[in-house]
Predict the structure.
Amino acid sequence: MKKSKNLLSIGVLLIVFSGASSAKVFTVSRANCFPPGEVDLGNESISWDPYLNPHWLRVQSKHSMGGRERHTRTTGWEYTWNNNSTAHRDTISQRLWRVDGKHEGWNSEEGESFMIGETSANSCNFN
């Protein structure tokens, strides 16, 4: 009886941890994040795993104003739970930016990158 209980516990743990390890990576872009009080959040694109599991991630964040690209920031490949590309102090204007993000993952078995998603924002997206 005790042996079957232990096997059941191990099975439940395997199911729980296998679900957590294959957790979805979330993505977001934010623009014009300059709240009062000298807090500087800037413009950014972020990929993250809410369970803090590491993944190979790369993020590109293109920052435009008035339909014209001002700059693009790209991270290198990082094995992490959270990768972001941020431009602090995009202070030409604090309300007119648009941010477009590309979020990629790396498939080690296939030896190639894949698109996790694309995001865009013209607001801070704190909802």
In short: The radius of gyration is 19 Å. The helical segments are 2-21. Strands lie at 26-33, 42-48, 55-65, 68-74, 78-80, 82-87, 97-107, 112-121.
